[in-house]
Amino acid sequence: MATVDGWEEGGVFAWVSNTLGPRWGFAAISFGYLQIAIGFIPMLYFVLGALSYILKWPALNEDPITKTIAALIILWALALTQFGGTKYTARIAKVGFFAGILLPAFILIALAAIYLHSGAPVAIEMDSKTFFPDFSKVGTLVVFVAFILSYMGVEASATHVNEMSNPGRDYPLAMLLLMVAAICLSSVGGLSIAMVIPGNEINLSAGVMQTFTVLMSHVAPEIEWTVRVISALLLLGVLAEIASWIVGPSRGMYVTAQKNLLPAAFAKMNKNGVPVTLVISQLVITSIALIILTNTGGGNNMSFLIALALTVVIYLCAYFMLFIGYIVLVLKHPDLKRTFNIPGGKGVKLVVAIVGLLTSIMAFIVSFLPPDNIQGDSTDMYVELLVVSFLVVLALPFILYAVHDRKGKANTGVTLEPINSQNAPKGHFFLHPRARSPHYIVMNDKKH
C-alpha cells in the first residue's frame, strides 16, 4: 500500500483513507497515536521499578499513590524537554539504545551463561515445552499479547520500500531476517530471566533488576554493587526511549490536523516546530489512564498487564483497518501502479491479508483473557478495567470525527515532506518504528 502511486505520504492515514474512506483513515492513525499514549504507562512502571531498586525505596514501586505521583512527574518532566524542539531527540534515543538497552542485554546474557555453566539451580525445567509453549492452555495464550506487541510498528518500514533497488526480493527478506533476529534475542533474554526467577515471583516492573541481583550475587558477589549501575543504565535507556516517543506520534497525527479533520487548535505549532496541542492532548490521556489503572489495579502486576493488553488491542484496531483496506485494494483497485506486489497473484494476496486479519482477531480476543498470575476476584476486575478502558478509547476517534465541523479550509501554510534514508535526521532509525514520525513538518521553509 505504501508503494501505490500517490500514497507515499501520510502513512497509515493515507493507506486506509484511500481504501476505506477518511473516517476510517482518521480512526486508524488515531489508534496509532492513542496506543503510544497508553504504551507510556508500562514503560513508566519499569522506570519506577528501576528507580525503586536504586534508591531502596519500595513504596515507589508498590504504593499506588506514590507510584502515580512519581510517574506523572517523570512523564511531564520528559515532555518539557521536548517542547524546546527535537534536534537532539534521535541522538538521545541512539545513546539510550546502546547504553541503556543493548549493553545491559549483553551483560544479562553473559551472566546467565556463566550461571548456567556453573551448575547453579535453574528455576524452570529445560525441555521442549520451554521453547515451544503449550498454546492449548489459556494462560499460555496470554503470553501471545507481549509477543504481538514486540512486532507492532513494522508497517512504518513500508514507507522505505520505494528506496530499495529490488523491493520484491529485498523487502520480504529484510522482514524475515528481522523476525528471526527478534525471536532469537527476545527468547534468549526471556530465558535468562526465567531460569533465575520463578514465574510466580517475578515483578513485571522490576523483574530485570531481580534477575541481575541473583546472577551477580552468584557470579561475582564482591561486585554486587554494579547491579545498581546496570539498573541506572536501564533507567536511562527507558527514559531516553520515552522522551524520543513523545513528539513523533503527534507529528504523524499532524496530517489529520492539516486536512482539517481536527479542530484548528491541533494544527498549531510552537516556534520549535512541535505540535504542542497534540503532544499535550496525548499526555493528558496518558495521565488519566495512569491514574485510573495504577489506583484501581493496585499499582502492581495487574496494572502493568492491563496497560500492556490495552496498548495491544488499541493498536490491533488499526491493523484490522490495514488488512481490510488491503483486501479492498486487491479487489477494487488491482490496476493501481505500485512498486511492490506480493507474488502469486490476487489469490495469494487475499490469503495473506485474510491470514493477517484472522491472526489479529485472535490476538485481540486473547488479549482480554486474564493471565494465570491474576486469580480470584482480581480476574473480574482485570477484565472489567480492560474492557471499559478499551471501549472509551475506541469511541474517542469516532466521536471527535462526528462532532468536528470539517467544512473549514485545510492548513496550506504547512507542508509535509516524507522522511527517507537520504533526508532522515541523524539517529532517526534508532527510534522504535511505532514512535517515528513518517514525515517532516515544513513551516516557513524550515523542517521540523
Low-confidence stretches: none
Principal-axis shape equals globular
User: What's the CATH superfamily, by name?
Assistant: Amino acid/polyamine transporter I
Q: State the share of residues found in helices, binned by percent.
A: 55-70%
Strand content: under 5%
Name the average pLDDT: 82
Structural class: mainly alpha
Radius of gyration: 22 Å
Named at the architecture level, the CATH assignment is Up-down Bundle
CATH class, anyone?
Mainly Alpha
Strand order of the largest sheet: 1-2-3
Helix and strand string, N-terminal first? HHHHHHHHHHHHHHHHEEE
Number of domains: 1
Terminal CA distance: 26 Å
Largest sheet: 3 strands, antiparallel
Count of strand segments: 3
Can you count the helices?
16
Could you say what the CATH topology is called? Amino acid/polyamine transporter I
Keywords: Amino-acid transport, Antiport, Cell membrane, Membrane, Transmembrane, Transmembrane helix, Transport
Protein name: Glutamate/gamma-aminobutyrate antiporter
GO biological process, one term: amino acid transport
Membrane topology: Multi-pass membrane protein
